[in-house]
Amino acid sequence: MALSDLLLLAAIVLVLAILSAGGYVLMFRKRFSFLKRPYPETGMRFSKRLGVPTEAPADVTDVTIGAMEISEEFTVVEHEPSTTHDLIVPGDATADTATGAMEIAGEFPVGGYEPPITFEGELRRETPSIPWSYGDCKITALVRDPYWLFVYWEINEAKREEIARRYGCQALDESWPVLRIYDATNLYFFDSRHYAEIAINDYANNWYIRTGQPNRTFCIELGRVRPDGSYIFLARSNFVSTPRDQISEVIDEEWLLLPEYATRLYRRIGGIYPGPSSPGLMGPAEYISSPGFVGPGGPGGGISSPMKW
Amino acid sequence: MTQGYLAMVLHAHLPYVRHPEHEHFLEEKWFHEAVTECYLPLLWVFERLLEDNVDFRITFNLSPTLIAMFNDDLLRQRYVRHLDMLNELAEREVERTRHQPEFHGTALLYRDLFSRARYLFTEKYHWDLTGAFKRIQDSGKVEIITTGATHGYFPLLGVQREAVYAQVAVAVQYYERNFGRPPSGFWLPECGYHPGDDRILKKFGIKYFLVEGHGLLHASPRPKYGYYAPVYTPAGVAAFGRDMESSKQVWSAKEGYPGDFDYRDFYRDIGYDLDLGYIGRYLPEGWIRSHTGFKYHRITRLSDYKEPYIRHYAMEKAALHAGNFMFNREKQIEWLAAIFDRQPVVVAPYDTELFGHWWFEGPQWLDFLCRKIYFDQRTFAMITPGEYLGIYPCNQVSVPSESSWGWQGYHEVWLNGANDWIWRHLHKAAERMVELANNFSEPEGDLRRALNQAARELLLAQSSDWPFIMKTGTMVEYAKMRFETHISNFTRLYEEIRYNRIDMGWLSWLEQQDNLFPEIDYQVYQSRHLGELPGALSQRVPVSA
């Protein structure tokens, strides 16, 4: 055979190989779906990057209410970036990005892909930033349940400087932070002699505190204890009251069921009627809570929905 | 002779999800699914009960964000588009299952249901679901109550009392605009009760609210009737407590009705089962496997093996369970009436999305229940809490204990490792909003717009759905994004107002984007309102209902 014939044969074989490979991919394209990007939890990034065709580009025809106005806003707005701090908000449009968006839109085929409203605004929309701190010096307490409290706090620079001035520059470095829990139930004035103290660390700006005492009022103080045992006060929280965890001992004599009826009622409801020796405790065997209810097993195992959606 | 009463309360809420910047947005499906599977079927049930002159009573809570979504034009349009898609798919499903008799009946059922949904939404109600509920309320059989403006969790928001005041004020104002009268009842979001919040409810003429069972049971002084009768808080608002027995029968994982093996299985949806080539165009982005609403199997047993759904088996079970529920309430009320000197009221609140979405046969169960109660027995009758107060205007005065109906009964669901970081931002934002409201009493045009928008952003950030979703772990990224977006919008607005550099272009865009409560007035955040709250009643006198 001549060389040219061999070359022709090789070319034909190559073409056939390419065609059959392509055919294989087309036929079994589902197996190649890993080539598509995984769906992130927000719908936004995905649809924009792959440019999934939608009905019409938003800024060309007024197919969605509000879309026309949105695109018009971006072409005329002049925005001066805030100089106090770098807050990024969704759809943050600078004059530059507005024109950038129009240029991008111009390159896209009409009726094909939906151009993003603003390109940079889209990326920024993914991560709106909230302030890390507010420059306050305070501690706030919240009740979680009859036995637990939650506190969060913040100490600002001004306070740190004040401590350095008053107690010396080493005071903050040498001391460690503590939380003091005061029981303020039925107190007309603040009794600062009786408290529980928890040593915490400097990495925390919030803490869960187990007081274990229902139906009492508490107040939490944030402070620092120095090696010599002296205490530096930083901030004091609001007063919070833990709820009861059992039926009340207070009885209104005008609203009284006969004791034998009351015993039966509480036994039915699931509580134990309090007597001199046993405190009444509310303990349903299965807590029926909202919303949704957890069922046996996962998908396919009955109605199991740990969440609403 | 009526020995007692049953108060069924349905709680309907969705967070405000509206994304005009995207043609299709995954989380807007929540709204579409809820309307198609829960609200339209329930409205249909109510209409038929009214036609048949059944004397039933249901208390229905519609949250302001849900009403706002009912009223929004963009969401209505998108919902009709969703309905068209469902109807088209239903037709194709009927074709596809034509030679599969075990599934064909169910496909025909879906075609009927979805074409009825379309008829109801477009022709009967003219796209106006709020009006439909209003007409049902005007018939006297259904009482619509309201809840926090964006369903904020009051016990944890209440570090700033003005924040709770604003949630109630905006909700009551929005309710009055939509229903033409003030609400008589209030659903505390998640039944989260903090003693003292009732004074705010009293200011707006609210006559009653609901608390979790142990909230009322642990009230001080001890309530005479457990949670089978309301108490008045010292401010004069009645508190009704949830009954655990009736809740358990419906909601218990072990014993509840919805887990019955003949009911439709939630998870075997054709969105997961069928080939993408067929079902893809009905899925988000064309390929993301998710629920379409077409499910063809019944629960069958506690394993992955599922048999086809047989409608009349399920309907038989629904009727059976309705009869069983009614029988149990009869026995319960007879027992209670024997030891009480008044007629007890059994309060049974449920999440509305249970009826139709999680439990497909739920609306039919409710239909059967109302009919059986009316026709088949005389021991008890259905009632609304407001009517019960009309019969018994004199009640014990007691302070319910702080509680919620979330898991563990207190605030843990909204305050735990997954979401405790949000509260410092919410408290600070509320503090700043109060500062703004107190400082500006007569703002001119643009400043007023900015203040109102700041109030909107704060309300949207306060939604209890965000921490809830963070805890349960489903669409956590979305919840975080929403929370952070609204806080950052608010913070930027706060600074622009403070330094008098309001960016009008951005503000106009934001007003369209987050357009909740168009008539909101930022002045609800002023501290002076707290000074005008009704004080505690000192005498134990009968309070007129």
CATH topology of the largest domain in chain B: 7-stranded beta/alpha barrel
CATH 2nd-level architecture of the largest domain in chain A: Sandwich
Overall SS class of chain A: alpha+beta
The CATH homologous superfamily of the largest domain in chain A is named Immunoglobulins
Give the SSE map.
The complex is a heterodimer of chains A (309) and B (545).
Chain A: H1 3-27, H2 43-49, H3 67-76, H4 95-107, H5 119-125, E1 138-145, E2 148-154, H6 157-167, H7 171-174, E3 176-183, E4 195-199, E5 206-210, E6 217-225, E7 231-236, E8 240-241, H8 259-269
Antiparallel strand pairs in A: 1-2, 2-5, 3-4, 3-6, 6-7, 6-8
Chain B: E1 4-12, H1 29-51, E2 58-62, H2 64-71, H3 73-96, H4 101-124, H5 129-138, E3 142-147, H6 154-157, H7 161-179, E4 185-187, H8 197-203, E5 208-211, H9 213-217, E6 231-232, E7 238-241, H10 244-251, H11 270-273, H12 276-279, E8 297-298, E9 307-308, H13 311-339, E10 345-351, H14 362-375, E11 380-382, H15 385-391, H16 422-439, H17 445-461, H18 465-472, H19 476-498, H20 504-513, H21 528-531
Parallel strand pairs in B: 1-2, 1-10, 1-11, 2-3, 3-4, 4-5, 5-7
Antiparallel strand pairs in B: 6-7, 8-9
Helix pairs in contact in B: 1-4, 1-14, 3-4, 13-14, 16-17, 16-19, 17-19, 17-20, 18-19
